[in-house]
Amino acid sequence: SHEGSTNAAHALMALIPETGEGVFIAGNAPGALLLNGVLWEAYLDRYHPAVPRSAVPDVDLSQYTGSYAQNRYSESTIGKVAMLLSYAPVAQGDGVLTMPPVLGPEPTELIPQGEDIFIDRATDTQVFFTRDADGNVDTLHLIPAMELNRIGFAQHPLLHLSLIGVSLLVTVVGLIVLLIRRPREGRREWGVIAAAAAGPVLFILALLFLGNPLEVGYGATPGLYAALTVGNLAALFALLGVIAVVQIWRNNQWRKGVRWVGTVAVIAAVVFAGALWLWNLFGYRLLRLQRRPAP
Description:
Oligomer: single chain
Structural class: alpha+beta
């Protein structure tokens, strides 16, 4: 079998040469990726039920556990942000490896068939691991078109989501304090720092209500352009906020507690801006679709 996918369309072609059978399934919606697998597994369950597999003993399953992420993603466009939601944890179960549903609608259980070779219990699909030059497990091969690389702590999406969430929370709290304890002096600096603190939450709201970067495969909408513009302004005010913070400390403006609140809020805004740059949400790094000329 072989799959082919873009953000906007998903297809699966499978052949069974021994019986002369073939199946082709295609869909043009995000849910088609899961639907294709469900239909193919239903076909196999109906006409070619799997034979129960037994585990090969004495395979050290602990060497395969960890988090894996797909190695097929965009490094240069906004599509990279999908990686924040696409990692797969591999855990050790009762003589098997367990994963979230990746080969079908049911949780994946990989039964060891030998060193680095496994069979998925539900779909009877053979999967295998490969190793790097030092002999360490580094890649999980689910199907020919889907490879997942092992990721470390610094690459883990949960770490980056945590940094984004914490920076967002800190800026919101800082903005509330700055609005309540508005100083009488340094009004210009206050405005810049408050704008820097407001930038992250305004960007998140703009993404939620104006444009979804995960649907960029269908073409960039005006709403997405507007949301990215808000993100660009948030990053700009984060940098201006650094200058404003230096000014209020140099001139000994505001009460010390409010100064610290503004400083921490700007630091969090800079961290958030760094996340925008890392995940290609800074600027307009969009996938440009080719349109056929009118006949």
